[in-house]
């Protein structure tokens, strides 16, 4: 898989010390067949909530925001490889705590004003100010002065300094090997103060950025049109003149319209009920691009609730689940998982086979744990297809070893609530709410969902697993900022996840694949249609052929 | 009459107050936390606490409800938690589409329902009458989701007579209006049939016949107007029935009305939007019923409002 290679390259890159002028070599090679012009139609079922980069945090607006705004860092299209964005180059101090970014000159916001270091500082202050209510504020926790911002005692981040109009210096309170990835998150996008002041809370409906596209029209509940930014600072892109996002379209209707040539990309994907039909038709299957994604679907076992407080019981459950059958149930749209990290994530342990599917052994282990007759428990699950069906498969697997699980199928918000309430949900199937990485780094799969920080009321660590030793190992791994020791860092992360598997707070079930369908007139490399950071497609680089 | 109207309006206000209280209370006790939806999965506990505090969701129920109510009386329906836009703006942007769809549905159900009812009444007892009444029964019972997809598949996908969903022109309106109107047409056809049968039995019709008037003239000019009148009063009540149907129909056809808005908001616990749409719908239902009552005396002078 080429994706894997790229991700491995990324991490090495992210740790380069000294002056890094990293353009050319790894950067994107323009497509010689690309033709400028044209409009594409992308459909969605739900409204676009906001285009404010400090607020937007769903997979629908994530890539739209990427096309309207830029941050200091960015990814090579179609890969998880970091490349400089609004920063032309950057420098990292030897101790890994000071980042100095040199900005590109002459970059203009959509309102015509030039972007400078003041805007970078303003944007970071804005996203970390409690008043902004940014869901991503916590990502900036390693910047010096973050805590003072969070508790309201400061109005500006102490660690961010404007050196000159084109240089900004960011000091961290601790070494953070993931900081360049953080600067590539949408939350770190650069916004112009005057536009935010003008629109206030409505900035998300009147976005002004430096990105490849600017907002042309937004009819609430109907459509949103992005128009090419002719002054875009990256030359040659975007290719498309405009993109129309039509909202309120059921996935099944979007598919019918695509088949009639009225839609170019159904943003919500192929509806599960139509999946076999589409993939079974050679012409239509050709319009589908398949790729991996940084996703793992898992069952959490609440270690604070008996009998899941016993490690033998958790291991037994791990051996009882027939993952292959679950993958078959979703038409093979996934790969069985052995561990928390997905295979394309650096730090994934390749030679680990995971717990075998062995109900006999599982039953034996339950007996050894003092539960020869099994026990009764509850399995929480989100109530949208295919999750209740998957829960039934899990229920049957558990019944085979004498465990009687009651299925609680609830709306997403209710499952999330139960997961974050102490001693409430003994088991949760994560489908529909599963973890998809914010950025391609192994640390992103630990803290909130397996670390002590997430095992709190309202947290996302639904197994309530808190191992202080592993937390310490994780912190240690993330303080390794020396690129020469990159392998050591990944090895540490691999060790962390292997220890997690020994304690078995999760049953990792599968890693979902991504299937993006597109009209026949859409052009551009397949990688752009399964871009790991731009879902469903990388709008800046795709084009139309007619 | 005026006293009646004032009394009804006061009643309506109380009903709306009750609706607002019950809805707000249900959303308050719901085991789903809106702050978790806003904060997302990567938020730290401080961020979650901060958002909860800023939205006033850490306050007791009474305080929260009072705040909402006082805002409402000042014309402020609040801001969407997730979209950050004012709820009034979101609803205002979508309300015309819903009203248009309802109007279309009323026209559709009247045309279908009345025609079928009249035909059935004329052919009373015959095979046509019976099959029409079975059809109307099916129409009343058919799930709108299925009807919508069926119409969409046959008339938009296969025959290409109409666009596949969307909004903006008359051709976009036809299928969703039919889907929403089909259920009502079932009711109307049955009511029209019995109303028509009553009228056809009455003395003045017999007189008209006896005078030697042509059958069509008797039906069209003498019987129908009188048979239709009691049915007109029902339209006000339809608005309430439509309110439950628009959520489904708007979703299937991508119709940008408030039903879609409500559905999205419910899934993400966006309380200000849920409250706003509920209150607007409740207003529509209350007004619809009031209108139906007000019209009745004009149709049947024997009824007096007091």
From TrEMBL, chain A:
Its main location: periplasm. It holds the Pfam family SBP_bac_5. CDD domains: PBP2_NikA_DppA_OppA_like. GO terms for cellular component: ATP-binding cassette (ABC) transporter complex; outer membrane-bounded periplasmic space. Keywords: Signal, Transport. Residues 81-454 form the Solute-binding protein family domain. It comes from the Bacteria. One of its GO terms (molecular function) is peptide transmembrane transporter activity. Residues 1-25 form the signal peptide. GO terms for biological process: peptide transport. It is found in: Periplasm. Belongs to the bacterial solute-binding protein 5 family. PANTHER family: OLIGOPEPTIDE-BINDING PROTEIN APPA, PERIPLASMIC BINDING COMPONENT OF ABC TRANSPORTER. This is Peptide ABC transporter substrate-binding protein. It comes from Thioclava pacifica DSM 10166.
TrEMBL record, chain B:
It comes from the Bacteria. This is Glutathione ABC transporter permease. InterPro entries: BPD_transp_1_N (IPR045621), MetI-like (IPR000515), MetI-like_sf (IPR035906). Residues 95-296 form the ABC transmembrane type-1 domain. It comes from Thioclava pacifica DSM 10166. The chain crosses the membrane at residues 12-32, 99-122, 134-155, 167-188, 227-253, 273-296. Coiled coil: none annotated. It is a multi-pass membrane protein. PROSITE patterns: ABC_TM1. GO terms for biological process: transmembrane transport. GO terms for cellular component: plasma membrane. It is found in: Cell membrane. Belongs to the binding-protein-dependent transport system permease family. Keywords: Cell membrane, Membrane, Transmembrane, Transmembrane helix, Transport.
């Amino acid at each position: 898989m080429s994706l894997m290679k790229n991700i491995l390259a990324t991490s090495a890159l992210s740790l380069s010390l000294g002056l890094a002028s990293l353009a050319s070599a790894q950067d994107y090679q323009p497509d010689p067949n690309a033709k400028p012009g044209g409009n594409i139609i992308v459909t969605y079922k739900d409204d676009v909530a906001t285009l404010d980069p400090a607020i937007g945090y769903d997979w629908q607006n994530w890539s739209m925001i990427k096309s309207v705004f830029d941050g200091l860092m960015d990814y090579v299209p179609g890969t998880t490889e970091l490349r400089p964005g609004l920063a032309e180059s950057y420098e990292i101090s030897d101790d890994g705590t000071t980042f100095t970014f040199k900005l590109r000159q002459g970059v203009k916001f959509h309102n015509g004003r030039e972007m400078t270091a003041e805007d970078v500082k303003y944007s970071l202050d804005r996203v970390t100010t409690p008043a902004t209510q940014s869901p991503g504020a916590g990502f900036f926790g390693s910047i010096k002065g973050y805590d003072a911002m969070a508790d309201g005692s400061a109005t500006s981040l102490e660690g961010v300094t404007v050196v000159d109009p084109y240089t900004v210096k960011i000091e961290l309170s601790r070494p953070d090997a993931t900081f360049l990835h953080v600067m590539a998150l949408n939350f770190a996008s650069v916004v112009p103060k005057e536009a935010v002041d003008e629109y206030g809370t409505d900035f998300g409906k009147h976005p002004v950025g430096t990105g490849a596209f600017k907002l042309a029209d937004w009819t609430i509940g109907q459509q949103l049109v992005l128009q090419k930014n002719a002054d875009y600072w990256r030359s040659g892109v975007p290719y498309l003149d405009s993109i129309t996002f039509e909202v309120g379209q059921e996935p099944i209707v979007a598919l019918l319209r695509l088949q009639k040539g009225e839609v170019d990309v159904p943003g919500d994907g192929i509806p599960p009920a139509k999946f076999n039909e589409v993939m079974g038709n050679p012409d239509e299957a050709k319009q589908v691009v398949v790729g991996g994604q940084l996703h793992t679907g898992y069952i959490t076992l609440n270690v604070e609730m008996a009998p899941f407080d016993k490690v033998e019981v958790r291991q037994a459950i791990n051996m009882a689940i027939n993952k292959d059958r679950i993958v078959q149930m979703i038409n093979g749209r996934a790969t069985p998982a052995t561990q928390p990290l997905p295979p394309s994530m650096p730090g994934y342990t390749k030679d680990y086979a995971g717990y075998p599917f062995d109900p006999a052994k599982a039953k034996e282990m339950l007996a050894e744990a003092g539960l020869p007759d099994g026990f009764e428990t509850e399995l929480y699950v989100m109530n949208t297809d295919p999750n209740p069906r998957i829960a039934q498969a899990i229920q049957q697997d558990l019944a085979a070893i004498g465990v009687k699980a009651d299925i609680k199928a609830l709306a997403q918000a209710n499952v999330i609530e139960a997961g974050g309430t102490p001693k409430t949900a003994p088991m949760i199937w994560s489908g529909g709410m599963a973890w998809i990485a914010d950025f391609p780094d192994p640390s992103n799969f630990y803290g909130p969902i397996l670390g002590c920080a997430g095992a709190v009321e309202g947290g996302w660590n639904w197994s309530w697993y808190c191992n202080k030793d592993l937390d310490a190992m994780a912190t240690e791994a993330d303080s390794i900022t020396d690129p020469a020791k990159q392998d050591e860092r990944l090895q540490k992360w691999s060790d962390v996840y292997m220890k997690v598997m020994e304690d078995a707070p999760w049953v990792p079930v599968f890693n979902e694949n991504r299937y993006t369908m597109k009209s026949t007139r859409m052009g551009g490399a397949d990688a752009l249609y399964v871009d790991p950071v731009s879902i469903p497609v990388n709008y800046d680089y795709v084009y139309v052929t007619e | 009459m005026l006293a009646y109207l004032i009394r009804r309006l006061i009643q309506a206000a109380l009903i709306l107050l009750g609706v607002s209280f019950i809805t707000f209370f249900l959303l308050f006790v719901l085991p789903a936390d809106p702050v978790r939806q806003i904060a997302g999965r990567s938020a730290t506990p401080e961020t979650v606490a901060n958002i909860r505090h800023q939205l006033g969701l850490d306050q007791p129920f009474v305080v929260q409800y009072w705040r909402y109510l006082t805002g409402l009386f000042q014309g402020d329906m609040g801001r969407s938690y997730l979209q950050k836009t004012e709820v009034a703006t979101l609803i205002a942007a979508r309300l015309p589409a819903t009203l248009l769809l309802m109007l279309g549905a009323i026209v559709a159900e009247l045309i279908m329902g009345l025609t079928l009812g009249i035909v059935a009444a004329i052919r009373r007892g015959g095979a046509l009458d019976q099959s029409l009444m079975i059809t109307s029964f099916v129409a009343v019972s058919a799930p709108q989701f299925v009807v919508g997809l069926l119409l969409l598949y046959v008339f938009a996908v296969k025959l290409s007579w109409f666009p596949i969903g969307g909004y903006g022109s008359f051709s976009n309106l036809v299928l969703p209006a039919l889907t929403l109107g089909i259920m009502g047409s079932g009711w109307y056809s049955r009511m029209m049939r019995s109303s028509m049968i009553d009228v056809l039995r009455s003395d003045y019709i017999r007189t008209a016949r006896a005078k030697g008037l042509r059958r069509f003239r008797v039906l069209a000019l003498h019987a129908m107007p009188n048979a239709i009148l009691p049915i007109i009063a029902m339209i006000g009540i339809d608005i309430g029935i439509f309110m439950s149907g628009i959520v489904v129909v708007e979703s299937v056809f991508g119709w940008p009305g408030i039903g879609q808005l409500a559905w999205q908001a419910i899934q993400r616990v966006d309380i200000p939007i849920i409250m706003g749409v509920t209150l607007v719908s409740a207003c529509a239902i209350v007004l619809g019923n009031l209108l139906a009552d007000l019209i009745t005396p004009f149709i049947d002078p024997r009824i007096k409002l007091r």
